[in-house]
Amino acid sequence: MQEWFLTIYVKYGWLFSFADEFGDEPGFLDTPETKVTYTWLIITAAFAAIGFIIYRVVDLMQYLHVRNAKRPEDLESINDEIFAKKLKTKKGRWWKRFLGQSVSFGFQFGYIYGGMPLIVMVAHQYVSYSVIYVILMVIGWIINMTLSKIFSLWTPALPVQYHTPGKTWQSGLMIWQAWGMISWAGPVYFLATQGPSGWMGSVAFIWISQIIQLFVFIRHMKGKVVPYLEYEGLSDTFKENLKTYLASQGIKDSEVGVLRNSKMGPNAFATGLFGYRQIALTEELVRGYKDPSNPDFILKLDDDALEAVVSHEVGHIRGYHVLKSVCLGAFISSMTTVLVFYGFSKGGFFSPDYFNFDKATSAQIFSFFGQSMLNLMFMYPLTFLMISFTQRNEYNADTHLLETNGCKNGKAFFHQIRHIAPVANHAMWDRLNSTHPAPQVREERMKKWEDEHCS
Ligand SMILES: [Zn+2]
Fold first, then answer.
1. Which of 137, 361, 379, 446 has its CA 20 to 30 Å from the CA of residue 233?
2. Exposure string for 393-404, b = 16+ CB within 10 A, e = fewer
3. Helix 129-147 vs helix 363-405: angle between axes, to the nearest 10 degrees?
4. SS3 state of residue 158
5. pLDDT tens for each residue of 181-197
6. Separation of 316 CA from ligand 1 center, angstroms?
7. Distance from the CA of 245 to the center of ligand 1, in angstroms?
């Protein structure tokens, strides 16, 4: 153990500590209790920091890569002027993201390792632990709401992918964040009433709540889409061809539709819970999408390419990708919960005073802290795991497209999307951050396949 680091940490940590016995007398670093305390603090903090540092190093590689980017010559509607403009926007977004993620991590790190013990200590002079717990939850809710536009602070639960454009204080987002807090507090109830063995009730809660969220999401989608056969903006040839294709795939006509006024840009997605499923194309994708930063370009797919997009979504449905993602998310949350129960409950592996809390701190507050800390520690490793998982699903959905409808101009969507985002990312950055394989890689794969299989 680095003695100087321990000294600094103890001196700083002492400010927030209840362990008056540390004092300042020589030799206090040698007591077994102190060593255990600060060893755990340093191990968990270092673990949390490693993922963060790796991601920032790759961010810097991305910056150098983008700075030296050259205009791709195969994009017909991108001239030097437009490319320079897009490059500038991308650099601006890089800075915003880099600073946002650094501030977010620093803020969480400071709050979890320093702020929370301090808040609990000060507040306990005036109110009971159960009141403090409620206050911490409300603070968490307000911080999540206020900062959600700038960066994502820790979320209490791993939600089904959810994206909201527009205002911060809108009812949907407020309910969503409140639901997140409840799905955190609910499990803790089992911890407080049943001790470590309560993890079973908590894990059941996670799985049920995840399945309900998915079910509600699918039902919501089904209510919003117009079935493709009834949608006026699609040609009869397209409808006929798609009908034949869907029949061959065992997908009902009512399960593919167009999403009006999605505000999601040109996009398509699939969602499903076993036989309850929905594929949606946004209206912007079907009707054509005008690139706001390039007056010379409109993204518009021909009938064949649009059918290829649907084939990719069918690949997600047939591979049960949404269900698998939800299960992976729920499994990770379950493992975290088991860790929290055995680590941070009364009689658990960790003691509150290892982390500068009073020994008497309530199980709710200490588990709240434990879960925050585990979220911070595993934030980047889990991001990497989930990204790897979704990239694999996307690759497999492309494989399904090629194997079932490979001669239908599947490359067109990627070629056109590259006009909207013509600056390629560093390959390593894509590997760590992108939910999909890079568009130029997907376009290249489809082109090669067409050359080999289609005449
Ligand atoms: Zn996909």
1. 446
2. bbeebbbbbbeb
3. 30
4. coil
5. 776 677 677 776 777 77
6. 7
7. 18
Cα 312 to ligand 1 centre (Å): 6
Report how far ligand 1's centroid is from the alpha carbon of 303 (Å): 19
**Torsion sign, CA atoms 188, 189, 195, 196:** negative
Residue 67 Cα to ligand 1 middle (Å): 29
Please report where in the chains the tokens 């509150």 appear, as a residue.
352
Ligand 1 geometric centre to CA of 33 (Å): 52
Amino acid type, 6:
L
Q: Which token pair is 382? A: 């889990």
Alpha carbon 67 to its chain centroid, in Å, reads: 27
Who surrounds ion ligand 1 at CB < 5 A?
Answer: 394, 397
**Distance of CA 62 from the midpoint of ligand 1 (Å):** 24
- Helix, strand or coil for residue 267? coil
Rg of the chain taking only CA atoms, in angstroms? 26
Cβ burial 218-250 (10 Å sphere, 16+ → b, else e): beebbeebeebeebeebeeebbebbeebbeeee
Q: What is the pLDDT of residues 276-297, one digit of tens each?
A: 999 999 998 889 888 888 888 8
- Asked which of 98-112, 174-188, 362-376 is least confident by mean pLDDT, the reply is 174-188
What whole-number distance in Å separates Cα of residue 153 and Cα of residue 159? 13
Instruction: Count how many Cα atoms sit within 13 Å of the Cα of residue 80 in the half-sphere of its side chain.
Output: 0
| Number of residues that make up the chain | 455
Q: Which residues contact 398 (CB under 8 A, 6 or more apart)?
A: 312, 315, 410, 437, 442, 445, 446
Do residues 284 and 266 lie in contact, with contact meaning Cβ atoms separated by under 8 Å?
yes
H-assigned helices in 225-352: 236-249, 283-287, 303-318, 321-344
Query: From the CA of 397, how far away is ligand 1's center (Å)?
Result: 6
The answer to whether 311 touches 346, Cβ cutoff 8 Å, is: no
Measured in Å, residue 282 CA sits from the centre of ligand 1 at 14
Could you tell me the distance, in angstroms and rounded to a whole number, from the CA of residue 319 to the centre of ligand 1?
Answer: 11
For residue 313, report the distance from its CA to the centre of ligand 1, in Å.
6
As a whole number of angstroms, the distance between CA 434 and CA 427 comes to 10
The token pair at 30 is 């040698």
User: Do the Cβ atoms of 160 and 210 come closer than 8 Å?
Assistant: yes
Residue 290 pairs with which residues in a beta bridge? 298
The pair of structure tokens assigned to 448 is 């090669």
Nearest CA to 49 among 100, 113, 120, 1?
Answer: 113
312: pLDDT strictly greater than 90: yes
- The whole-number average pLDDT for the span 398-402 is 95
Q: By the 8 A CB rule, do 420 and 90 touch?
A: no
Give CA–CA dist 21/6, Å, rounded.
Answer: 17
